[in-house]
Amino acid sequence: MKNKKLRNVAMTGFSAILLWSLPAVAQIDEGLVAHYNFENANDLGKDAIGHGPTLEIAGEGGAEAIDGIKGKALELDGFTWLESYEADAIVTGETFSWSLWYKAGEDRESSGGIISKSPDGWAPGAKALFKGEGDDFLGFDVGWVGAAEHEGEVFDDDWHHVVITCEFFEEEDGEEVIELAYLAMYVDGAWAGELEEEAEAFGEPEESVFRIGSGSPGDDADEESEPFPEIPFFSGMIDEVRIYNRVLEEEDVIELLKDGLGELPKPEIVGQPADARGIAGRSAILSVEAEGILLSYQWFKGDAEIEEADGPSLLLEDLSAESAGEYKVVVSNDSGEVTSEVANLTVIDEWSAEIGLVAHFKFEDEEDAGKDSSGNDNNIFDEGVVLAEGIKGQALLLERDSRLSDLDEEFELNTHASFTWTAFIKTEDDGGLIAKSPENWSPGSKAIFVREGVLGFDTGWIGDINGETELIDNKWHHVAIVVEAGEEEDAITLYVDGNEDGFSDGMDMAWEDDPGVLSIGFSSGDFPFEEEPELNWFGGQIDEVRVYNQPLIQEDIITLMIEDGGQIQAPAIVDHPVDASATEGRSARFRVTATGTGVQYQWKKNGEDIEDANEATLKVKATKENEASYSVEIFSEYSEVRLTSESAMLKATPRPVFGGGELAHVAEFLESYWNFDSEEDGIVADQIPNSTHAGELRDGAELSEEGEGYGGKGRALDPSAEENAHMLAADAESYDFNSSWTWTARVKLNDIPESGDEVGSGIFGRSPADTGHNNGSKVMFFNGMRLGFDTGWVGGLITETEGELDTWMQITMSYDSEEQVIAMYLNDEVVISEEGEEVIDFEFEVNEFPEDEEFEGGFVNTGFRVGSGANNFYNSPFPGLIDDAAVWSTVLSPEDVALLANGASPMPEVSDNPTLSVSRVDSGDVVVEFTGKLQMADSVTGPWEEVAAESPHVIKAGDLKANSFARSVKE
User: Fold this and answer.
1) How far is CA 450 from the centre of its chain?
2) Residue partners of 366: CB distance under 8 A and separation at least 6
3) How would DSSP label each residue in 833-847?
4) Number of domains within the chain
């Protein structure tokens, strides 16, 4: 089934979303099994059509009939519900749909079950529509499977309509036919969530009871019979409960919605699109805010429709003079339409500091510290602040007991749209800087702050981002947060002293409300420093605060930094690139570390520019043609200083030649092999010739005693000493786990590893070397005795297959990047998932986050460890030994895995036969590459003379003889 991800805009009692035409209202009887309309006050549980069971009142309170969305409704006090133990007619183990209306009662904080079919205790396959804690969460849960979830204004003073549809169907997977179940949830006519799994997991448990106003109440006599949700009873009103034995289509959902409402309320525009100024080559966004349900949008330039401009926001990219003009939007639904006021877009050639400026606080007025100097009169209130000398004139001097705040809530700033905040700060400790939030942190609150010494930004209940530059040094630093609103996800950039300090494009500001007021010198009363709430107030100085309703670019940020008192830092090289080597066909990396404002990079090969090589790191494939001198030029458009780094050489080492062994046919793909038989100063050699992946024993990891390795021979890795003990491979960046790979090792467990949620003992971990689990991390682990795999911020898999204690086991995992499937083996057997499915050709979105893309916490490709997963993630002590660990850059076949399980070494025999190749380059020189010893002669029959040379040996064109012969012999 296709995901239907939509961006909802919460309105009064409903959600705004794309409209389809509404048919005339009609009773939907096809497939109707039961209809509870609560019209009979003396028999509230009676089915109005006579097909379904009659429900009995249960619980300790009362149930009453009151005025509802249509006629009478059922009112429940949170202690009472309706139920039937004879509800065979209401089936959830095959295709069904439920439709109902609800309205929250006075208790908005407690959870509660709205309608369910489940045993007394929550069980696999049980089903319940439920209210979460608070007033903004609605879910439909299938026991032991998962939940379709919706967040928004769904428990307020209005009636809301919910439809659950669940379709059981078959799908072909090659020659196999799989039975699946797909569940969808609609809230107020709009698709709101989904859940898909194998049909068996959706099966209805035995002794299931149908309930209205409750989930599973639990069984006091049975300690294992747990309720669901935690408080299972609903407080509020329920009306028009309809049960179907078919899937309701989208038009049915709308018809039932209109059946309750009678007629859709006409759209109303409550926030008109505003005039805007854009800069040529950049983008601009126009937005409208409307109330109503099932809304459709169509934007116009003048009187001409704009194609595909059918949302509440209009994004105009790559602006030019032709983009300027008058824009409007028509908002409509089945009940009518309304046209917005005209918004004028002007396009200018260059940016200036006044464009999009909402407020500028200079702190120059002792009598009115919160005075806005932008001319927009967006003043905020002084709550006890003191002024002192700043970066430019006066500045706030805060001692964690004062702030500036918009107490009258007249400062208009829409943080669902693009915005920018900038400021100068000077501090010796963490603290809150600028926020838009209620007094206490709430969903949708926003704040920038100094946390753990670096700049941070958080959006309540959505996500956060942190920078890297140290700010606690009692020096002035310019900081900025830029949010560029997108249609589904927003681009968020942190800047420190004019340079990008953090970036994220995975958050959506509009998923939560936009609450609170603007504060300077304060974040909220209880966040981000929950343990030390005094740090939510700022201690130090703040100067030159600017607020924009546009996303500024780096060039703008630097312009403001200079204008507001900062200085340009000239480029400087901190660390030069160093020589690198890699096996032919693999990649080497050169790095430079530089400081300065707006630093740019241009890498060079033998003094010539390399196209598109403009980052601090250069990745080069190791070939003979690429053996050269590499340097990088460092410069900035804000400084006349241009620096060239020291040169670094690339050496492409020949691939090892393998002469035999059971796995010789895949030997060219063997990237690393550690047999753990020896170490020197804590370094374990990689047995692959010319490898750069020697392993460092860290955090208490050591090698076992002689004779404790696999087969009673040699030694093995012992990472059991403490949490996070592991071996870290060097040059981890040169592994390419974006492409196909296989990890193999032999393991022996002496004790049962820790088990639980996201805990266990890691076997392999592709994760940052020195930070925690991150987007795209890959970890293979034991959870208890069961094998598992997790990909950071994507998903995890724990299998049902269990290992054994005190015996050597071969574990293998492979990933096919073309097919995007994984396979996992224990010995030579494919492991089994929790659903009973073999984990081979198992679909898993392993590389949703490319591992060479930087996320908060750093690059995933900076680390590869054996014996642990990641810092603070599957890093419990590995209670045993690991031997013969290997990394392959291909997918091993089941036959290859069987060879390993039967004792074959990952390492084929390395041939010591000499090799020789001769080539002529453009200059006429001859290049001789060889292994062994090089000999030359004037005749093919000799005599041969040994040449004192290293490979490659270059014979200049002028030194060549008419007849020359070369050969290599064993050392």
Assistant:
1) 23
2) 387, 394
3) BTTS-BSSSEE--TT
4) 6
DSSP 522: B
Distance CA 520, CA 378 (A): 13
Contacts of 292 (CB under 8 A, 6+ apart): 11, 14, 16, 264, 265, 266, 267, 268, 331, 333
Q: What is the predicted pLDDT for the residue at 221?
A: 64
- From residue 844, alpha-carbon distances to 338, 445, 477, 795, 819 in Å are 46, 34, 44, 8, 10
| DSSP three-state, residue 938 | coil
| Residue pLDDT, tens place only, 687-721 | 998 888 999 999 999 999 999 999 999 999 999 99
Is 160 buried (19+), middle (13-18) or exposed (0-12) by CB count in 10 A?
A: buried
Is residue 18 in a domain? no
- What is the structure's pLDDT at 858? 63
* CA–CA distance, 130 with 440 (Å, rounded to integer): 27
Q: What is the extent of the structural domain holding 398?
A: 357-563
pLDDT of residue 857: 58
Tokens of 838: 């073999």
What residue has token string 């009518």? 336
What does the alpha-carbon distance between residue 498 and residue 565 come to, in Å, rounded to a whole number? 13
The pLDDT of residue 24: 38
Q: Among 601, 627, 653, where does a domain finish?
A: 653
According to the model, what pLDDT value does residue 911 have? 64
Shared-domain flag, residues 520 and 592:
no
Q: Is residue 199 part of a domain?
A: yes
Give the C-alpha distances (Å, rounded to integers) separating 775 from 395, 616, 757.
39, 21, 18
Residues 308 and 442 grouped into a single domain: no
221 shares its domain with 313 = no
Statement to judge: residues 216 and 286 lie in one domain: no
Distance (Å, rounded) from C-alpha 311 to C-alpha 183? 26
Q: What are phi and psi of 557, to 5 degrees?
A: -60, -45
Rounded to 5°, angle at Cα 702 from 696 and 703: 105
Check whether residue 207 and residue 321 sit in a common domain. no
Domain assignment present for residue 305? The answer is: yes
Position 28 in a domain? no
Whether residue 585 sits in one domain with residue 558: no
d(CA 747, CA 753): 12
Rounded CA-CA distance 685/675 in Å is 8
CB 671, CB 735: distance < 8 Å = yes
pTM of the predicted model as reported, rounded to 2 decimal places? 0.66
What confidence score (pLDDT) does residue 19 get?
A: 33
C-alpha 272/C-alpha 289 separation (Å) is 7
Q: List pLDDT tens digits, range 269-289.
A: 998 998 988 899 998 889 898
> Which residues of the chain fall short of a pLDDT of 50?
1-26
Residue 294 CA, chain-centre distance (Å), reads: 30
